[in-house]
Structure to design on (240 residues):
């Protein structure tokens, strides 16, 4: 006859085995630059150098998340006129014949985060008001069921209720690389924002695309001042 201790041990073993079998290691993304590109190395990263007349750009693969590929892009203007750098116009393609996949628009993402935060704040205030109404209703009900001598004491004991405080996300980060999309701080402080460049000026930041694990190679194109600067990458996906 099996003892309760034996049965308990068996059940725990089955439970542990089932739990450990539920998790698999995350896939690893490795990015390499095509051999034909003009590159320089920067702390282990392959930086692609691009140039078209008076416009120069550099791009390298920075990191990834479960849903995003993050690249670093820097554009320099050597022309005699101002040029506009628009990150939402940067796009990714598997080849020239495929439909372009645009980069995330930081201004749109920031607006979306602010709208979401505003809605959360309104919901929090509505909950606070609802809690206050409920507290007042409780006080009225207690007063109605009590005699006149005790009503003041009951009313004084039920005026205070728990307040709901909303914590905002507009916090200055210690370093931009500490945040990744979709955090508000990433879009505000680390991403490449729409910028007008005068002669001799440059702008740089993170450019984000959705994860495309099915692509073994692709190209990223940077349109600036009527020119398109394109870099080619090879992607390798590892499943540990």
């Amino acid at each position: 006859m099996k003892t309760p201790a034996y049965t308990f041990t068996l059940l725990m073993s089955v439970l542990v085995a089932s739990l450990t079998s539920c998790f698999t290691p995350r896939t690893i993304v490795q990015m390499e630059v095509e051999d034909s590109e003009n590159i320089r190395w920067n702390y282990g990263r392959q930086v692609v150098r691009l140039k078209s007349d008076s416009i120069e750009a550099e791009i390298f693969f920075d990191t990834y998340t479960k849903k995003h590929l993050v690249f670093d892009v820097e554009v320099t203007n050597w022309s005699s006129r101002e040029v506009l750098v628009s990150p939402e116009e940067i796009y990714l393609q598997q080849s020239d014949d495929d439909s372009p996949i645009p980069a995330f628009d930081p201004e749109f993402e920031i607006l979306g985060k602010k709208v979401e935060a505003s809605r959360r704040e309104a919901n929090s205030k509505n909950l606070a008001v609802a809690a206050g109404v409920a507290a007042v209703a409780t006080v009225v009900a207690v007063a109605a069921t009590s005699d006149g001598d005790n009503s003041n004491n009951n009313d004084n004991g039920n005026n205070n209720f728990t307040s709901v405080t909303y914590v905002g996300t507009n916090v200055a980060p210690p370093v931009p690389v500490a945040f990744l999309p979709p955090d508000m701080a990433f879009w505000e402080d680390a991403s490449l924002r729409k910028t007008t460049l005068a002669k001799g000026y440059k702008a740089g930041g993170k450019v984000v695309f959705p994860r495309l694990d099915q692509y073994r190679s692709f190209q990223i194109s940077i349109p600036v001042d009527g020119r398109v600067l394109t870099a080619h990458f090879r992607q390798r996906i590892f499943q540990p």
Notes: The radius of gyration is 29 Å. Residues 27 and 239 are 5 Å apart (CA to CA).
